[in-house]
Amino acid sequence: MKILVINGTPRKYGRTRIAANYIVEKYETDYVDLATFDLPLFNGEEAQGELSAVKELRKLAMEADAFVLTSPEYHNGMSGALKNALDFLGGKQFKHKPTALLAVAGGGKGGMNALQNMRIVMRGVYANTIPKQLILDPPGFNAETKTLNEKSKEQVDSLMQELIMYTKAYIQVIKPQMGEQ
Ligand SMILES: Cc1cc2nc3c(=O)[nH]c(=O)nc-3n(C[C@H](O)[C@H](O)[C@H](O)COP(=O)(O)O)c2cc1C
């Protein structure tokens, strides 16, 4: 089972990255970390397809059976960095694949808009976005150790269990039919 985590915060110290790193380490997933990934601004030019970062992103996404998108909520939406990365991809990489969404907000009931925004965009690339989703606020993190607190870990684990369940179904039932479409 190959799961690809795409970390959507462009900030190296971003809380979203802490959540993404927890998933990557615990579940031994593949990783595209947009805080360090040298991805240009999508311009539609074919030459961008030859860039190593673009090739790597497309390869990892193509090989993935499932995805976790983690995004900060920035101005009521997903980060520009994540949307830009998704613009390099499409149905070829995402069609029918289970996708889990995790938003990290600044508090004050933020995060839902980023989740809704990601869900609409993932509909546009025919991903099979699972119903369970998660928002983490600043109290969900330990500011000193820069880690998730125990409750947040449990919530992330619960999201991952659900994603793994759907991914098993994708691998057993849907994936074998993909070549026939
Ligand atoms: C440009 C910008 C816009 C933001 N807009 C929102 C927002 O609309 N709602 C919200 O809850 N938090 C907002 N925040 C706070 C982030 O969601 C918060 O910092 C959170 O930790 C996730 O971002 P990070 O992973 O980059 O740290 C914003 C932060 C930045 C830098």
Describe the secondary-structure layout:
Layout: E1 3-7, H1 15-27, E2 30-33, H2 52-63, E3 66-72, H3 80-87, H4 91-94, E4 98-104, H5 112-124, E5 128-136, E6 141-142, E7 147-148, H6 150-174
Parallel strand pairs: 1-2, 1-3, 3-4, 4-5
Antiparallel strand pairs: 6-7
Task: Provide the low-confidence segments as ranges.
Answer: none
Secondary-structure class: alpha/beta
Large-scale geometry: globular
Strand content: 15-25%
Order of helices and strands: EHEHEHHEHEEEH
Distance between the termini: 22 Å
CATH architecture classification: 3-Layer(aba) Sandwich
Structure ligands: flavin mononucleotide
Overview of the structural elements:
The chain has 181 residues and is an alpha/beta fold. The protein has one domain (3-180): Flavodoxin domain (Rossmann fold). It has six helices and seven strands, in the order E-H-E-H-E-H-H-E-H-E-E-E-H. The protein has a five-stranded parallel β-sheet, with helices on both faces. It has a two-stranded antiparallel ribbon with strand order 6-7. A hairpin with a 4-residue loop joins strand 6 and strand 7. The longest helix has 25 residues, at 150-174. 37% of the residues are buried. The mean pLDDT is 97. The chain binds flavin mononucleotide (FMN). Flavin mononucleotide is lined by residues 9, 11, 14-16, 72-76, 104-106, 108, 110-111. The site of flavin mononucleotide has 16 residues, from helix 1. InterPro entries: Flavoprotein-like_sf, FMN_Rdtase-like_dom, NAD(P)H-dep_reductase.
